## 1
Amino acid sequence: MSEIAMNAAHMIDMLPDPDKNLAYELIKKLVLAWDPDFTKLTTEEAKQLEEAKGSGFVDAEEIDWSKIGHE
């Protein structure tokens, strides 16, 4: 989690419960406006994906799933 996200979470935690819900709904609305179907990668997710690809990542289409668990 980024430092900004952690700071935001800590600040939201200081609020009374009704205000926590308001802050949560605002954040949810902002995230949905940015990515309505949750398909965009964050900078950190993109970095992790590139690292995974460089470390022997295998495409699911390259796997013969019929042989998995049948040894």
## 2
Amino acid sequence: MADEKAEAKVEQAKGKAKEVAGRAVGDEEMEAEGRAEQAKGDARQAKEKIKDVFKH
């Protein structure tokens, strides 16, 4: 489970980096991909938090 949380954080960070890079070079597609990766990481993190709530 800790791996899932770590993976979510990595996905969020990669997405943020891609979004910033896309914005810096004017690549709207890359920026959108970055936002999508962040959202995927956010969803994964939320899923893990819900699991923790019901586990305790």
## 3
Amino acid sequence: MDQQQEPPEPALADRERAVLALERRGFPGPGAKERAIREELGLAPVRYYQLLNALLDDPRALAHDPVTVNRLRRVREARRSER
């Protein structure tokens, strides 16, 4: 019997991988991360955080970088519980 397989999900786009890569880095002081977001990704910080938040719910992002995604999910949940 030949089982039908679902087509694989498309890989993360370059920009999505770049967002996760930037999030893995540490930044020395205030403003450094926002500057890197603008200079390296060409995004406004607000748009960056919108993309990042969507990535945290994307199973492809979890498969690509589980350590970063799980850490950020914990941070997000902690912030939500503080409200």
